Amino acid sequence: xxxxxxxxxxxxxxxxxxxxxxxxxxxxxxxxxxxxxxxxxxxxxxxxxxxxxxxxxxxxxxxxxxxxxxxxxxxxxxxxxxxxxxxxxxxxxxxxxxxxxxxxxxxxxxxxxxxxxxxxxxxxxxxxxxxxxxxxxxxxxxxxxxxxxxxxxxxxxxxxxxxxxxxxxxxxxxxxxxxxxxxxxxxxxxxxxxxxxxxxxxxxxxxxxxxxxxxxxxxxx
Length: 221
Known about the structure:
This protein is α/β, with parallel strands linked by helices. Helix content is 42%, strand content 14%. The strands form two sheets. It has a six-stranded parallel β-sheet with strand order 5-4-1-6-7-8, sandwiched between helices. The longest helix has 18 residues, at 72-89. Helix 8 links the parallel strand 6 (168-172) and strand 7.
């Protein structure tokens, strides 16, 4: 069953981490390893504080908060090294997500990606899951200067797809993204993600136009 949002929308733009992918465990492990290597504990508020940031913004925030002497480029390279193989070899789509995407494609809906992951990781995980040719546009937040609280990455994805923002629905699992999606002039659909206590479901559904509890149950409002 497709959400009532279709039609009139002609394009759907998806976040990856926590939205299409069962992948939040990767970043919990990466963060734990990263901080342990520096003799630091993983702060309880770290994941929530970086939710809507780009990869570079996250590195800059981490360096500033913890007084690290490393460059943003060095920090990002370490994160990429720690995460790449996990995404390539072990990260899979959430239950029901493949069928959901296939149903949209069957209806002629154009698919795009708007993710905070780097392009190298995006390409690896989409290829590993056999859906790398399903998306007409793949956009990393590395291509823009501001995080998902702003419309930039969503507008860039729509531009690549060649569609008007008003014709797009964007799926994400964080509240700041709902703000950015609306700022882009798109319909916002929240996706439930229970991993590692990063999501305030009441807050995100209050901001969203629609929500999905699980792709498998097709419980979409």
